[in-house]
Design a protein that fits this description.
Helix 3 (51-65) crosses helix 4 and helix 6 packs across helix 8. The chain folds into two domains: 3-210, Rossmann fold, CATH 3.40.50; 220-383, Rossmann fold (3-Layer(aba) Sandwich). Mean pLDDT is 84; it is low at 447-454. It contains 18 helices and 13 strands. By secondary structure, the chain is of the alpha/beta class. It has helices at 10-18, 26-36, 51-65, 83-96, 113-120, 131-140, 156-161, 165-174, 192-201, 230-243, 256-268, 282-293, 327-334, 355-365, 383-387, 404-414, 418-446, 450-453; strands at 41-45, 76-79, 104-107, 126-129, 150-153, 181-186, 206-210, 220-226, 248-252, 273-276, 299-302, 315-320, 344-350. It starts with 9 loop residues before the first helix and ends with a helix. Helix 12 (282-293) links the parallel strand 10 (273-276) and strand 11 (299-302). It has a seven-stranded parallel beta sheet, sandwiched between helices. A six-stranded parallel beta sheet has the order 8-13-12-9-11-10, sandwiched between helices.
């Protein structure tokens, strides 16, 4: 179906034509007419399906055709779980705003708050934001959403997994216009929290499911290699990178420590790599992503912090050095390649520690997975050996002489940051000494002295 058949404004069709967008994808064909009609929407589609335009286009179309609810409040707000995804959405929104008299702004955590306040004082009509920072501006009263027309939640399941439910409810309560439209997109509609918050925020939504998250990616070749130990994994990785004809590669690890260690090892092997992990500040993250997008580095090693929101068409290979703990994360990792109609390869290295995660992925994909092998590097370990391992001896619980009240206090203090914990112990100790001294004074004054008795 052509975009012009969806009833979009001619100015939007002109922008689509400028970027050579002609045919609508499945999610766009189904979501755009529903959104233009003003109905709430709860949709699911696989990564790389074009869902961003599925909510950007109807939001802009309605703004062009209808009168604003408020002169100063934004007309549309798009929420995304990560800074990377928010930037990607903002880029697509800006491309569709060409030739229109609308201003948009990007509100992200980790950026200068006062600069964002200044941007909001210019009353932008469209805002792309992460939930935490947008909620901060609502609390600071630098933003009001009373006249908001369209609220979009992109990757709602990810936002809920990251603990943004309170912020989403705060934003929902602030955008209280009775005719507000809400468009919610999620990787899956089976997420319990997604359905709960949809029941709170959406009014009789139309449900659409296109290419569910456990569907096999047709443009991606998936391979699995059995590994005996860490050295075997590294040898396999080195061989794969030597033999593969890749443009760019994303390698996923389990922890930040693994990310830094593997990046150092790759550079020692003359394989130019850069690490992206959660302990970097926003400036460092921006620099790394800019270098990767400009092909300064061909290999990006990262944790799941970047498994969502990355949209780089030149990524030809994704390698799971460690299998993800959650099955859906596997699909999202793999979805970083084979984008925009390109072919991609997804390679997973499965060691003894990854076996349980691998079996969950196999069940999730609903297919029997066979292992590939490279000459001289075939894995030998068997799953039966894992089942026959002797179980670890359980430690006996320590005998605690403290009272229940003291145990509860200790557990509460342990959960607090060390610096705060130290001061709480000091205060508690000083109060204990004070109470003892008061008791001592009381004991002296309660009884007459020997001189008084005589």
């Amino acid at each position: 179906m052509q975009f012009k058949e969806l009833g979009l404004d001619n100015r939007l069709l002109k922008n689509l034509s400028h970027y050579d967008f002609k045919k609508a994808t499945d999610i766009q064909k189904q979501a755009i007419p529903v959104a233009i009609a003003g109905k709430d929407l709860l949709a699911s589609s696989k990564t790389g399906s074009g869902k961003t335009l599925a909510f950007v286009l109807p939001m802009l179309h309605k703004s062009l055709k209808n009168k604003a609810f408020s002169a100063k409040d934004p007309r549309g707000v798009i929420l995304a779980p990560t800074r990377e995804l928010a930037k990607q959405v903002y880029g697509e929104l800006k491309s569709m705003l060409g030739g229109l008299s609308y201003e948009a702004t990007l509100i992200l955590g980790g950026e200068n708050f006062n600069d964002q306040v200044k941007a909001l004082r210019r009353f932008p009509k469209f805002i792309v934001a992460t939930p935490g920072r947008l909620a901060d501006h609502l609390e600071h009263r630098s933003l009001f959403l009373d006249g908001l027309e369209t609220l979009v939640l992109d990757e709602a399941d990810r936002m809920l997994d990251l603990g943004f439910a309170p912020e989403l409810r705060r934003i929902h309560n602030a955008a209280k216009h009775r005719r507000r439209q809400t468009l919610m997109f999620s990787a899956t509609l089976d997420h319990a929290e997604v359905n709960d918050i949809a029941a709170e925020m959406l009014d009789a939504p139309k449900r659409i499911s296109i290419g569910v998250s456990n569907e096999e990616h047709k443009d991606i070749t998936q391979k699995f290699y059995l590994c005996d130990h860490l050295d075997h994994k590294e040898a396999l990785l080195e061989r794969i990178l030597e033999e593969a004809e890749y443009k760019q590669v994303i390698i996923f690890t389990a922890t930040r420590v693994d990310t830094d260690r593997l990046t150092k090892w790759l550079n020692e092997k003359q394989l130019k790599a850069i690490a992206l992990s959660g302990n970097l500040n926003q400036t460092q993250r921006n620099t790394i992503m800019s270098q990767f997008e400009r092909h300064v580095f061909k290999i990006l090693v990262t944790t799941d912090v970047a498994s969502r929101g990355l949209d780089i068409a030149t990524v030809t290979h994704v390698i799971n050095f460690d299998m993800p703990k959650h099955t859906e994360e596997y699909v999202h990792r793999v979805g970083r390649t084979g984008r925009a109609g390109n072919k991609g390869d997804a390679i997973s290295l499965v060691g003894p520690k990854d076996w349980d995660s691998f079996k969950r992925v196999e069940a999730f994909l609903q297919q029997d997975i066979s292992f590939s092998a490279l000459e001289g590097l075939k894995g030998k370990f068997k799953a039966s050996a894992l089942r026959n391992r002797p179980s670890r001896r359980k430690r006996k619980p320590l005998k605690v002489k403290h009272s229940r009240r003291r145990q509860r206090l200790r557990s509460q203090l342990i959960a607090i940051k060390p610096s705060i914990r130290m001061w709480l112990w000091v205060i508690r100790y000083s109060f204990r000494r004070k109470s003892r001294s008061q008791k001592l004074i009381a004991s002296k004054t309660d009884y007459p002295s020997l001189a008084a008795l005589s």
